[in-house]
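quick one, two chains, predict together pls
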Amino acid sequence: MSENNNIDPGHMVDEHSDYLLSFAMSKLQDLELAKDMVQDTFVSALTKIDKFERRSKLRTWLTSILNRKIIDHWRKAETRYTDPASHFFSKEDGSDNGHWLENSGNQKTLETVEDLIVKDETYLELGYCLEKLPERWRGVVAAKYLKESDSETICDDFEITTSNLWVIIHRAKLVLRDCLKSKWEL
Amino acid sequence: MNLCEKLTYNYEKSKFKKLKFSDRRSMKKHLPMCKKCRDYQTDSDTLDHLLRKLEDPNVKYVFSDNEKKLLKSNLKPQ
């Protein structure tokens, strides 16, 4: 038996499950899914424990397995937004009249929303709007703003280019803005 | 990509790196004429501010004791 097989599954759960769950939640924002991912990570780790060479810490190795599973999940689950961002803007000649921006009578900016949110001391609505984003976008937005990771780290973690990062942030903001404005009927 | 789309995209990009001169010039020329793009910039900055305050950094997610027990039992060799 190799020395790697000496890892006790019970101890592994006690030591690393909460850390892995928090890591998964920083990318997924879906608690049940995150828990499933962590369980899958432990199962995978035990099936290939012989490949763990102890050059890294066990936690680092487990995190890399979890990260791979999250990326695989995104790849499978991702339904690309087919709407081009131009959907959010009218045409130059003003002929596009089907979008909320065109139809909303009172075109206030989100600063009004900010006043309301700060006044209410709640960010529930913004959290709700975040959940409407495609999973990968949500993860990128969470990494950028909630965790304030640097761009290089985000691009590495999500396996995207810097150009993709800007596109995702741009489009995610358009969706969030749309959602918040509709919530407050601006 | 229409002009508003390109300019608002460039506005996000400008938060990461300095834009090319031609892009900066194009933005400077367009913005005074386009309320939608000016509003987008305001909204974008507001979202930056709101999103940064969204999550309590102390929030930590944990498995309950029962969930950990279940996890361990699922990991036992069948």
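The CA atoms of residues 63 and 152 of chain A lie 18 Å apart.
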